[in-house]
């Protein structure tokens, strides 16, 4: 859009050559056919590179062992082979694991969104001593790698006895220290900054207290920020395996964690005595991977509008 | 008098709103941070009565560089990968953003695809993909051009080899960055371009003189974001190393704390250097 009308190639003279030139290079340097072809070619090429692992996964997950070994079968399996999925379904214990993943992902995400909204509002609408310092500290928490604080947190959680339960995720989220909380506080800060002061004053004249203004006036206006924060929070908690593995131990599990020990679980379930059929192959492995990312793909398919528009409207890019 | 009480009431309410964060920061960030610094100077043993520590001065840090050959090696690999990947991620996401900022069809479709990896990029999934060899572009190495380039044993060829082996992973890391750039590009006033065009600037000149300076702050933001996400990604070899040392009997929490502090300082230095480089360059060119 922005660079639409930059250069100005005026057609010199008339005739078929010029017209062809005009068609190929365009009037303004970026609306010609060649240019368009180039852009679309590039985008499609890059898009393919992005999708390549996904397509590969899906293709392999549908291949039987014969298809995998057959060098003639490249992308499209000879038959729709779903036994890989059956095996992966059993190994992942898909349904219970899915429910557990949702449980340890959605609840911290809701809590984190709520708390970050409150904190962001506090930073955006009030003046108090050391505000700047504290805001810098908020942003600083983003660059501290979780590895530095995980050991003391582990010891601390062990002492208060919340290891192996969802509270290990919930407590930090409740106090604004969840995964990437700093980003969400920043998003809400930007949103609440935009709220006109006059609106708040009018409500104050009507006798509304601070809490009421926040709940009935500010929060509804920040609906996009709430949606974005929840979605991102959800995805980031879902994909978090480092902290989840340490905090949850063996008592709670998620689909990515199950995928991590996929091969081991498989070999436990199907000991290698029963001949070749019981051996794990790429197809089963890929079926497990597809099933692990499937819930996220579904979530993304439904919410991608918010996701994509969210980033550019959320104000991450606003400062 | 009334004005003052209003003000103090206002600041008190503000503090109340952010009080969860203050409490959380002290409890879950500041305290663990210092405690892990303290642990990094200790030999930590876990006994039935709880944790026992003995002060060992800088032994943990010394061991990290002298005894533990793996750690320095992994740290070096990490630095190399960081230096290579971050500029590529930034440049690449900028290119995609500029491409998509044109009036083209299926824009939303492409945006959707380029953002997709952010949704599914978790450690175990990527691990599966790497072990299947899907993350490198297959068969590109067979081309004669690349073969000759790779056969020369130079810095250039090793860089090229790394890129080809990890291209998809690198690209998969650029989802958020590309959207941030896209948002920034859309905020540039079109009138600036019109003015530049009237002054006879070409597309190329417009990019360097108008686009780049106006999205410059976003380049800094994206660099910081990229370095951070790249470093805390759970597949990172350094992180794996720290995690294995955490639960090993002969090393334990003390040593792992020292490792994570070294790692933290390294990331901080990397962030400092890159931001400094960017802003110095920025001032020279665009002030």
TrEMBL record, chain A:
<dbReference type="Pfam" id="PF00528">
    <property type="entry name" value="BPD_transp_1"/>
</dbReference>
<dbReference type="InterPro" id="IPR000515">
    <property type="entry name" value="MetI-like"/>
</dbReference>
<feature type="transmembrane region" description="Helical">
    <location>
        <begin position="102"/>
        <end position="123"/>
    </location>
</feature>
<feature type="transmembrane region" description="Helical">
    <location>
        <begin position="213"/>
        <end position="238"/>
    </location>
</feature>
<comment type="similarity">
    <text>Belongs to the binding-protein-dependent transport system permease family.</text>
</comment>
<keyword id="KW-0812">Transmembrane</keyword>
<feature type="transmembrane region" description="Helical">
    <location>
        <begin position="283"/>
        <end position="303"/>
    </location>
</feature>
<keyword id="KW-0472">Membrane</keyword>
<keyword id="KW-0813">Transport</keyword>
<keyword id="KW-1133">Transmembrane helix</keyword>
<feature type="transmembrane region" description="Helical">
    <location>
        <begin position="135"/>
        <end position="156"/>
    </location>
</feature>
<feature type="transmembrane region" description="Helical">
    <location>
        <begin position="37"/>
        <end position="58"/>
    </location>
</feature>
<protein>
    <submittedName>
        <fullName>ABC transporter permease</fullName>
    </submittedName>
</protein>
<feature type="transmembrane region" description="Helical">
    <location>
        <begin position="168"/>
        <end position="192"/>
    </location>
</feature>
<feature type="domain" description="ABC transmembrane type-1">
    <location>
        <begin position="98"/>
        <end position="303"/>
    </location>
</feature>
<keyword id="KW-1003">Cell membrane</keyword>
<dbReference type="InterPro" id="IPR035906">
    <property type="entry name" value="MetI-like_sf"/>
</dbReference>
Automatic annotation (TrEMBL), chain B:
<dbReference type="GO" id="GO:0005886">
    <property type="term" value="C:plasma membrane"/>
</dbReference>
<protein>
    <submittedName>
        <fullName>ABC transporter permease</fullName>
    </submittedName>
</protein>
<feature type="transmembrane region" description="Helical">
    <location>
        <begin position="206"/>
        <end position="233"/>
    </location>
</feature>
<feature type="transmembrane region" description="Helical">
    <location>
        <begin position="82"/>
        <end position="101"/>
    </location>
</feature>
<feature type="transmembrane region" description="Helical">
    <location>
        <begin position="108"/>
        <end position="126"/>
    </location>
</feature>
<comment type="similarity">
    <text>Belongs to the binding-protein-dependent transport system permease family.</text>
</comment>
<keyword id="KW-1003">Cell membrane</keyword>
<feature type="domain" description="ABC transmembrane type-1">
    <location>
        <begin position="75"/>
        <end position="274"/>
    </location>
</feature>
<keyword id="KW-0813">Transport</keyword>
<dbReference type="Pfam" id="PF00528">
    <property type="entry name" value="BPD_transp_1"/>
</dbReference>
<dbReference type="InterPro" id="IPR035906">
    <property type="entry name" value="MetI-like_sf"/>
</dbReference>
<keyword id="KW-0472">Membrane</keyword>
<feature type="transmembrane region" description="Helical">
    <location>
        <begin position="253"/>
        <end position="280"/>
    </location>
</feature>
<dbReference type="InterPro" id="IPR050809">
    <property type="entry name" value="UgpAE/MalFG_permease"/>
</dbReference>
<feature type="transmembrane region" description="Helical">
    <location>
        <begin position="159"/>
        <end position="185"/>
    </location>
</feature>
<keyword id="KW-1133">Transmembrane helix</keyword>
<feature type="transmembrane region" description="Helical">
    <location>
        <begin position="12"/>
        <end position="34"/>
    </location>
</feature>
<dbReference type="GO" id="GO:0055085">
    <property type="term" value="P:transmembrane transport"/>
</dbReference>
<keyword id="KW-0812">Transmembrane</keyword>
<dbReference type="InterPro" id="IPR000515">
    <property type="entry name" value="MetI-like"/>
</dbReference>
